Amino acid sequence: MKDCNCGYCMRGELLDKFGIYICDLSVSTLILFKEQSHRGRCIVAYKDHVSEIVNISDEERNAFFADVNRAAKAIHKVFKPDKLNYGAYGDTGCHLHMHLCPKYKDGEEWGGVFQMNPGKVYLTDEEYAEMIEDIKSAL
Fold first, then answer.
1. Residue range 98-126: average pLDDT?
2. Fewer CB atoms near the end CB (10 Å): N or C, the chain?
3. CA–CA gap between residue 74 and residue 17 (Å, rounded)
4. What φ, ψ does residue 67 adopt, rounded to 5°?
5. Which fold has domain 18-107+125-138?
6. 112: helix, coil or strand?
7. How many C-beta atoms surround the C-beta of residue 125 within 10 A?
8. In a 3-state reduction of DSSP, which class is residue 8?
9. Residue 111 above 80 pLDDT?
10. Can you tell me the mean pLDDT for 34-38?
11. SS3 assignment, position 123
12. CA 68: distance to chain centroid?
């Protein structure tokens, strides 16, 4: 099930506004968040357009969290954050997804909740491509 107004479902221009497709995982998609004030920030979006984790079976939930875990391990390996924050939002998007936000003791917002879209750090296409390759190699 897909929603034609959802960037996670449709990709293309809708996804390009905030993220870059990395790869498909077992039941989800791994996306690099364009705003990189927290170096290595990614999103794991469930494969289908469901709003809540209670809308999927226990098996699908376990597979989704296995994908989150796999992505988290890659982020830890590549970016070596001091902590990884996990955020599950979607008040307006209503597509099950989780933000994986690396936190660094000497970086943005250490000791507090990360901002959703601080809009501070955008990279070149080459820098994004390099990050994506590093993440893929660590998966």
1. 84
2. N
3. 24
4. -65, -45
5. HIT family, subunit A (3.30.428)
6. coil
7. 8
8. helix
9. no
10. 93
11. coil
12. 9
Distance in Å from the first CA to the final CA of the chain: 27
pLDDT of residue 117: 67
3-state secondary structure string across 40-108: CCEEEEECCCCCCHHHCCHHHHHHHHHHHHHHHHHHHHHHCCCEEEEECCCCCCCCCEEEEEEECCCCC
Token digits for 12?
């293309």
- pLDDT, mean over the chain: 92
Coil vs helix vs strand at 127: helix
> What are the beta bridge partners of residue 103?
83
Q: Is 125 helix (H, G, I), strand (E, B) or coil?
A: helix
- Is 79 within 8 Å of 39 (Cβ atoms)? yes
- For the whole model, what pTM was predicted? 0.92
